[in-house]
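From the shared-data thread, chain only:
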Amino acid sequence: MSKARGQVFYKMTGSGNDFVMFDGRLTTPGDWPAERMARICDRQMGVGADGIVFLTPDGQGGVRMDYFNADGSPAAMCGNAALCSARLAAHLELAPPEGMTLLTPAGLMRTRCAGGPDLAELQMPAFQVPQPLTMEPQPGETGFFLGTVGVPHLIVLAEDAAVIDVARRGRELRFHPAVGPEGANVNFVSAPARVGQEPWLIRTYERGVEGETLACGTGTLAAAFALAAASRRALPSGWCTTRGIRLTVSGSLANGMASENWLCGEGRLVYMGVLR
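Structure, as tokens:
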């Protein structure tokens, strides 16, 4: 019997961005080839998820987060997976809920559980604010920004993100030469109908999933700071996912860098199961 059989997993959601998560003390990424991960993430033939996470204690108050996309490819970071990791690490008593350090390929992240049973907060290392990018817009698109927040992100300012064909347009932009050879997540954002209202809408086409996901934490951070730097939106700012779940971004800007940045959002345990 292989190590993968009879393995307990945790299904979690971060504002609709969902994950299959494992206790890294019981199994490691090496036990799971990419093809197996992809089958688990398949929504018809598997559990269904946008990605897979392994959590392993690493020093006092530290937890290593290994994240893999739905196709089994590794990724340096996922904001909503980090929020879920904070909640699950506390549940598994890997680290204290009031504050822990996530160790990721994108750097060390401060996280903490906050504000009720399903909320968590994440602080990324200081990052360069996404910069304006010149691209040929389609009707309804009014601006572009490109930068890396954990992973590359293209932010598309739209008149109404709700009507964007994210699957089609997101795939076009994800592979656009202007975003680089590895491509980028594509985040479509738009203001509410009434000026000054909160929150703004954000929708994301995610590489590795190769389709729209219901939320993207690092994409929300990227969009919030890009628009703040462009004097389009002040911080803190509220954001709304396709399913109407709120995310909040706060922090400060100085010399083109986003520091003391915090993302607050959902990290909810949906159910536990056993993979056979």
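The CA atoms of residues 39 and 46 lie 6 Å apart.
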